[in-house]
Design brief:
4 helices; disulfide bond; flat; mainly alpha; about 100 residues
């Protein structure tokens, strides 16, 4: 070994974490990030962030119902891609959650 020489180790995000950060897989990424940011900014006072939690919960409910519908209709993949979700929300005219 040489002194002063370090081997740079590549740090990879765990698979589960990569999936949660993938906008094609997680439709509520913005809501999730907003909740976490609120908790950080408010010293983890859950009461101050309840509106963010509610928005996230409603987002999950909405996209889970879409996913169940697509599954019943035999549509694959059950979760629409980020582009498809943008189209769905655009057709609705407003955010359903």
């Amino acid at each position: 070994t040489r002194t002063g020489f370090r081997i740079k180790k590549t740090v990879r995000m765990p698979v589960v974490m990569r999936r949660l950060r993938d906008p094609d897989i997680n439709p509520c990424l913005l809501e999730s990030d907003a909740s976490a940011r609120c908790m950080d900014e408010n010293n983890y006072d859950r009461e101050r962030c309840s509106t963010y939690f509610l928005k996230y919960k409603n987002c999950r409910k909405f996209w889970n119902s879409i996913m169940n519908q697509r599954r019943q209709n035999g549509v694959k993949p059950p979760m629409p891609t980020a582009a498809e979700r943008d189209e769905i929300l655009g057709a609705m005219g407003k955010m359903p959650y």
